[in-house]
């Protein structure tokens, strides 16, 4: 049985996210008071998964066995008065499965919007999948509804496997992968296969050698070893070159013997070339006097080590006045959203960047007063 607890002027603990609903929302001053905004939080809601799911077009995902919380903002329009905020829950077929009661809400133009906290828990055993939490605001003592808000949620089991990739939903949240997709990194290996092989399921190319893990695994090589495909391709090219050279030498010998040429073994020719003339004198340089010697090639310049992914993120931020939206960083780097989110979490822990929430987007800023460039001695 569903249980609900409503508290006025409260604050939700932990991370919350504003989730779009739909319904009848009066917004013009002087018409009626209305449900102005709804945020989702609580132990049942996983904000990390919200950032991982691409653009998150669907509802908020809610753990079946835990409580989730709604922070409902009710805005007064016109004269203030007493209202009731009532909550019901509908299943995926639109049938009411729980009437969760009503809470008195006092509104006035002077005090502005009032916050009401709603806690929902106790889903029935088969209550998984798409559901809707319906919030209705009506004047006290009246049946007519002033404003409604339909909040879609998707109830999911921790031990279930939403994507069917072999990892449970709870395991995917723990390692940071997207439990709505089998292949978070998009490299051709499922998240389960990546965990089994020891590769990073959030990166298409774990070793950073230029070949994604799925391609290397498809030819029977170990994707956890850097440059393994380069070495095998290099060995194959050397073998092909030796085979072609051997064929050319054999062809030349056959042609020479056919034309009556006398072949001299390579070791005899080398012995003749190194033999000293009579009298023990050293042979003169065959080049004309005054001829220029061949220039010695200068040593190759030592290439600077490439930037790490974290340093590249900081460099991009510096080039954009130290501030960008997280979605813009994804466009600049062409990495997955999961990879960028994970890198920003590391940089934030190191105090190199700060993430600010703006609506449904993250704004990323370089931390003031800190040298964000590559550190001396860093690899």
Topology:
Elements: E1 3-8, E2 17-18, E3 34-41, H1 47-52, E4 60-63, E5 68-75, E6 82-90, E7 96-106, E8 114-121, E9 129-139, E10 145-156, H2 169-175, H3 191-197, H4 213-218, H5 228-258, H6 266-274, H7 309-319, E11 323-325, H8 326-333, H9 337-349, E12 353-358, E13 361-366
Parallel strand pairs: 4-10
Antiparallel strand pairs: 1-8, 2-3, 3-5, 5-8, 6-7, 6-9, 9-10, 11-13, 12-13
Explain this structure to me?
It is a single chain. The chain is an alpha+beta fold. Among the domains are: 3-156, Immunoglobulin-like (Sandwich); 309-366, Arc Repressor Mutant, subunit A, CATH 1.10.10.10. 26% of the residues lie in helices and 25% in strands. The strands form three sheets. A five-stranded antiparallel sheet has the order 1-8-5-3-2, with no helix packed on it. It has a five-stranded mixed sheet with strand order 4-10-9-6-7, with no helix packed on it. It has a three-stranded antiparallel sheet with strand order 11-13-12. Strand 12 and strand 13 form a beta hairpin. Residues 6-20, 22-30 and 375-379 have low confidence and may be disordered.
Strand content: 15-25%
| Class derived from helix and strand content | alpha+beta
CATH topology of the domain at 3-156: Immunoglobulin-like
Strand runs, count: 13
Shape, principal axes of CA atoms: elongated
Radius of gyration: 35 Å
H/I helix tally: 9
CATH class designation of the domain at 3-156: Mainly Beta
| Major sheet strand order | 1-8-5-3-2
Termini separation comes to 56 Å
CATH architecture label of the domain at 3-156: Sandwich
The helical percent reads 25-40%
Low-confidence stretches are 6-20, 22-30, 375-379
Mean pLDDT: 75
The helix-strand sequence is EEEHEEEEEEEHHHHHHEHHEE
Largest sheet: 5 strands, antiparallel
């Amino acid at each position: 049985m569903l249980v609900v607890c409503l508290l006025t002027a409260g604050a939700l603990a932990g991370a919350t996210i504003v989730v779009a609903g739909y319904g009848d929302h009066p917004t013009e001053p002087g018409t009626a008071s209305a449900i102005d905004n709804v945020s989702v939080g609580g132990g049942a809601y996983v904000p990390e998964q919200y950032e991982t799911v691409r653009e998150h077009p669907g509802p908020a995902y809610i753990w079946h066995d835990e409580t989730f919380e709604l922070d409902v903002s009710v805005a007064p329009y016109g004269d203030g008065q007493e209202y009731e905020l009532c909550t019901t829950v509908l299943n995926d077929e639109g049938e009411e499965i729980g009437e969760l009661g009503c809470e008195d809400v006092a509104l006035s133009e002077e005090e502005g919007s009032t916050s009401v906290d709603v806690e929902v828990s106790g889903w029935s055993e088969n209550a998984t999948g798409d559901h809707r939490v319906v919030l209705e605001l009506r004047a006290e003592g009246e049946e007519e509804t002033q404003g409604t808000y339909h909040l879609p949620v998707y109830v999911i089991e921790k031990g279930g496997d939403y994507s069917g990739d072999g990892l449970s939903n709870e395991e995917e949240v723990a390692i940071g992968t997207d439990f709505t997709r089998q292949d978070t990194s998009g490299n051709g290996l499922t998240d389960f296969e990546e965990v089994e092989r020891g590769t990073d399921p959030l990166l298409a190319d774990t070793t950073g050698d230029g070949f994604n893990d799925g391609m290397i695994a498809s030819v029977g090589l170990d994707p956890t070893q850097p440059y393994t495909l380069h070495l095998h391709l290099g060995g194959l090219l050397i073998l092909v070159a030796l085979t072609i050279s051997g064929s050319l030498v054999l062809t030349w010998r056959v042609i020479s013997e056919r034309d009556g040429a006398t072949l001299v073994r390579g070791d005899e020719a080398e012995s003749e070339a190194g033999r000293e003339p009579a009298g023990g004198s050293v042979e003169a340089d065959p080049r004309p006097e005054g001829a220029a010697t061949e220039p010695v090639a200068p040593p190759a310049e030592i290439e600077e080590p490439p930037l790490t992914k974290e340093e590249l993120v900081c460099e991009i931020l510096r080039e954009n006045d130290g501030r960008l939206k997280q979605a813009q960083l994804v466009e600049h780097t062409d990495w997955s959203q999961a990879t960028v989110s994970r890198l920003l979490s590391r940089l934030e822990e190191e105090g190199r960047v700060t993430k600010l929430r703006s609506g449904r987007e993250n704004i990323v800023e370089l931390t003031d007063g800190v040298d964000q460039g590559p550190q001396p001695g860093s690899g």
